[in-house]
Amino acid sequence: MPLPGIMVNERTFQRLLDLSVVSGSDTDDLKSAYKAAVENLDLLTVDYQTIRDLARLSGYSDISLHLLLIAMFASLADGSVCLNCSPRSLERVLAPVCGAATRGRVRDILHRIRNYPALVHCRDESAPALFEDPRETYKPLILAASGDGLFLYFQKYYAAEKAARDSLRAILSRHAKIPADPGTLASVVRTVFHEKPLARGDEPVLLNGDQQLGVVLPALKNFVLISGGPGTGKTFIVLSLLRVMARLGVPAGRIRIAAPTGRAARKMTESILKGIASIRERDSHDDSLLALQGATLHRLLRYSPARDDYLYNRFNPLPADLIIIDEASMIDIVLLGKLFEAVSEGSAVVMLGDRNQLPSVDAGAVLTDLIPGDRDGSLSTAMAETVGTILPDIAISRKPQAGGASIQAGSDPFTDRVVILNESYRSEEAIKNIAGGINRQDRSVITMIPEWDPRGELPLRGVWRIEPGRTGDPPLREMHRILSSWAARHYLSPVIDGTSYRDLIEKISSRDLDENTEVMAPDIRKILGRLDEARILTPLRSGIFGAAGINRYLLEKLGPIFDPAGAMALFNGAPIIITQNDYERGLFNGDVGLILKGSGGRRNGAFSWPDGIKLFPAETLPPHEPSFCITVHKSQGSEYGNVLLVLPEGMPERLLTREILYTALTRAKQCAIIYATRPVLERAMENRIERESRIRLG
Fold first, then answer.
1. Among 283, 474, 620, 681, whose CB has the most other CB atoms within 10 angstroms?
2. What is the pLDDT of residues 459-480, one digit of tens each?
């Protein structure tokens, strides 16, 4: 019996024949190349149709052109901004298509690459653009030749990357406008850090040295990058920075805070409200910050779908003195270019994120490019001396030059502009140690992960691994056994306070949800908090090991228990995740809530809001799906008490990466259980996401 994947590939290739992407008159070599591409690359039918159209536009039909275009789309499918046309890079991309003939095919491509004048504009970036024919720049593809190599772009991405790179250079060339002489700044910092600190419960929040540096540098430099994993204190840095800037005379009306997603933007708003409320002796400077509202980057820049353009741009910059961007790793190259172009002469920009987690689902790997592994947070001699007068109690890392001398500002454009946060205060020690080993590609950490037998009790803390096949059951039955144990523990069994998730749902269901949401808000918040104690993560959307298959099983298992009369997908207590932005209701892709049915029988979607809880009639919700299990991509920016990560054998290599493993593992605070074989974990650790771009400066 043919395997399902083979059948799908045969159908896809037949579709290419039906659409005349491949025809009977094509050479056997060309047909074989397309067959191999269908079998080994993750391209869409529309990609192949575009390849066909571009080849026809060129007026050429040689196999070198088709292979070049296939390589281009394969690179874009992996999230790259461009195709690196070095022999080594082309061989890596085309090896699954050309096999043993790869090296010869690549030689032919590089020999012919400049010979498609109707399709490709060849641009020598060392020559002044003044002498270019403007008509050339409107060709579909741009072949950019520079000192660092040869790169093939679609026009859209070339323009976006150039805008981002040029605008960033302009920002870095400016001086900080915010008045912050060291003496004044030192006084303000003492007030914010020591005299009127933020609080967590009854205890003051004491920032470590790196966190303090993250607060001070943006008052001295107009562009600062801050990278740290979950629990490293990025939220406290933002809160403290806002308080410092308010005391330095920056009005709240001239501050903008934003993130790539509505969920992350709302989280920023909630953090500010909660943080300011925690200050025991807050003053008017702090109170002024309560007016700040997080926005998506599209809303920040005032995107107009009708014009497919932004109100704020290089001709009409953002009216802001301080722009703070969270979850910067999720920004794609096109949006980054628009953001940088809209930064005004006097603005300071602070970007925060985690350079080790998954990049944007669209093109680019912004934070990884701007803060690669060899770029640290050390300071120049001059900046170290300035910071030492402001923060005399912290140890300062000075950047060494070759030969041991301290480096001077100016040799690296990001000197004095990077803060790396290494200390996590949130996760279990075992989780932090394993995550650190994954980033170092230390395979020995895999042997440190103990095995858990799914026939036993679920572990409560640490990192554990389930060996697929350990129970002796077929894969589907074994997965269902694991999911049943997970559901029993996290949704049906009492926890420390003696109540189960099911108990909480039954309690709220006895009340009239339409009567007074404000009174019931604490109980609904408790339910939402309980949901965040457990989440199943997978890189896959479909299949028995994908989010859809896992959610389907848990709906079938828990639906009759929670809500025998309810529709399965909307049973009382079912967690949901929004999949499409709804600006009218303020619900965004990635927002997690739950379905609640009150005593009146009406079903509502309940969501946490900065000022309380909001309920929406279930039938009015934007597109959504169950969220017992979500993809690792959708989990970014979230944290859970317990995580079950499902990494089955046979996954596409592009989904089995170090970034997937790190991102999923670091969502867990107490316990992470990984369903995977050791070889799968080893492959994931070795397989790093590599996206081609040239945004990196210096």
1. 681
2. 889 999 999 988 888 889 999 9
